[in-house]
Amino acid sequence: MEEKKKKKSTKKEEKKEVKKVVKKEIKKEETAVPNPEPFGVRFKSFIASYKFLYTAFGILFVLVLLLACMVFVKGNEVDKTNSNIVFSILEKNTNNYLDLDLETLVGKEYTLKVTNYRQNRINKDKSHYVITVINDTEVEMEVTIDKYDENLIEGNFILTDKAKQRIQKLYNQLKSNIPIMLEGHTGTSKTKTAQVVCKLLGLELIRINLSSETTIEDLMGKLIADKDNSFSGFIYKKGSFSEAYSEGKVLLLDEVNLAPNPVLQCMLSALDSDKITQSVPGSGLQTFYRHPNFRIIATQNPKTGSFSFTRDRLSNKFLETFQVIEFPPFSDTELVEIAQKAAIKMKYIVENEKGTKKAKIIEQLGNFHNEWVNSELSKKSPQCYTVRDLNSSVKAISENISPNDVISCFYGARYEQDVYNQMQDLLKKKYNELSKNSNILPKLPEDFPKCFQSKALKQAFQFAKLGIENGKHLLFVGKEETGLTQIAQWISHYFSKNKKENFIFIFTPETTVSDLLGRYIPAPQTEEVGNIMIWEDGPLTEAIKNGYSCVFTNISSAQTKVAERLNGLFDPKDSEEDYKFDLYENSENPVINISKEFHFISTCNIDKLKYLSP
């Protein structure tokens, strides 16, 4: 028994030893390093795999990229020994091609011929680029417009040499995406120049006339009543600023220094960031992102001279944000050039016409305007003459109205009789072509209301008739209790097409813009569910839309900033596009058409004339 037990134990121990030996051999095989294959065998295997293709293409790409960079750097290097410019240079004055080194070019301007012009309504054959080499590494380039497509410029805007310079400055600043401030006195073509540049570039322009009653909501957006498209009865509508800001349009802010300070600060914050966030009660947050094509142009009359009290001074922070472009008064020679080119445009004279009677009339008209505007009599008076008066005079003369009658109406009618007589004496002494053939007859038409026909009334009627026929609005000035309002009513009634709808509006110091133009009011409750708020036109808005001839008396009593809100209404109407009035207070209909039958006839106390805006 014992022997059997010993044999069993011996066999168990042998099996354990065998297992240990087997396990060791397995571990050796697992950890053993295989014998390396010959290099030739391994290389053939790598060539046959896709890894080779990937590696080869990667190396080839890196080599090509390095070669391209070397060529680019070499092509842009300036050879310090020779310093030849790598592009063709065309001298502006001689039109000769030049090969000049950098040292010769420094501080001079040359024209670079360019073929890849952008399609921006400026023909490539009518423009060039001016290069100014500053130093070895800096070169400035600026586009210059040589010729303008005058078909794109409607109305009576005259392209003088100085006007082209102003257009060029604004054009260059618009391309640089810097906010622009156009500063100059009334009638120096600030707004018109902005409109012309946008027309040349094919840019959509949104214009808004600012006033003391402009609100942030007017510019940024607000809720308007709309029962058809909203369950609540209100929808959010963008304002002029947010529309231009988010859709890449040009925003023209006329009379920016009339706007309240909170409105200016809001605009400034928007210009300093890339988005606008507006909290609208009942509509949550409205966010608009700045479009890369958004541009902004502001205009202001300088806070100097006799009208400085009518405007606020803008903060330094606001002014520092804008690039200011000065619009100085027109020079004497430019005004004569304007008169001559306006006459050519109106086909009264032909280009280069000299020595004829018509050419003399136009030349004398320009010289008379210069002399009278700069005379002591004119400077002492609160009257303001601009290039608009000169254009209106040329237009009237081109329609075969006597030059003397034109000057008597557009210049002389503003003064009392003694100054008017001195003007006529000046015409007889120095401007004989302008003093001839007066056709104004001091009489009233037979269907004029029955009244005492004084000489002053007959003359006032004839001047009013000539003014209305030439698109002028009327301002009757005189002392108190001289019958100004009655005369204005008679003339308004006589020239009105719709005599039943005429009315009188009396200005007071408490008159607001809303009193004139309109406001939102609660909708009347009816059985039919409609809008909660509706827009109600003011008397002036009704007159503008329907062509009424109405009287606005005592305009000098209104706050200056209220009267300034109407500036856009009195701008010259040279084209169909000009017969529009911005009514941004009405979000549903922010632009209305101006009827050609509309006449704004107002009265003013002569002692308060100096407080009116120019």
Textual characterization of the structure:
With 614 residues, the protein is of the alpha/beta class. 40% of the residues lie in helices and 17% in strands. The strands form eight sheets. It has a five-stranded parallel β-sheet, with helices on both faces. A four-stranded parallel β-sheet has the order 15-22-19-16, with helices on both faces. Helix 5 (161-175) crosses helix 6 (190-201), helix 11 (332-345) runs antiparallel to helix 12 and helix 15 crosses helix 17 (455-469). Mean pLDDT is 75; it is low at 71-129 and 134-141.
Structural class label? alpha/beta
Question: What is the residue-mean pLDDT, rounded to a whole number?
Answer: 75
Helical proportion, percent range: 40-55%
Strand-residue fraction? 15-25%
Major sheet: size, sense and barrel closure?
5 strands, parallel
What is the total tally of β strands?
Answer: 22
Rounded to the nearest angstrom, the distance between the terminal CA atoms is: 140 Å
- Shape assignment: elongated
Radius of gyration: 39 Å
Q: Total number of helical segments?
A: 22
Query: Which strand order does the major sheet show?
Result: 7-10-13-6-14
Q: Which stretches are low in confidence, meaning pLDDT under 50 for 5 or more residues running?
A: 71-129, 134-141
From the structure above, extract its key features.
614 residues, alpha/beta, 5-stranded parallel β-sheet, 4-stranded parallel β-sheet, 22 helices, 22 strands
What is the topological layout?
Elements: H1 2-31, H2 39-48, H3 51-76, E1 89-90, E2 97-98, H4 102-105, E3 109-112, E4 127-133, E5 139-145, H5 161-175, E6 180-184, H6 190-201, E7 205-209, H7 216-220, E8 221-225, E9 234-238, H8 240-247, E10 250-254, H9 261-271, E11 275-280, E12 284-289, E13 295-300, H10 316-321, E14 323-327, H11 332-345, H12 357-373, H13 376-380, H14 387-398, H15 403-410, H16 417-430, H17 455-469, E15 474-478, H18 484-495, E16 504-506, H19 513-517, E17 518-522, E18 533-537, H20 539-546, E19 549-553, H21 560-564, H22 567-570, E20 580-582, E21 591-593, E22 599-605
Parallel strand pairs: 6-13, 6-14, 7-10, 10-13, 15-22, 16-19, 19-22
Antiparallel strand pairs: 1-2, 3-4, 4-5, 8-9, 11-12, 17-18, 20-21
Helix pairs in contact: 5-6, 11-12, 11-14, 14-15, 15-17
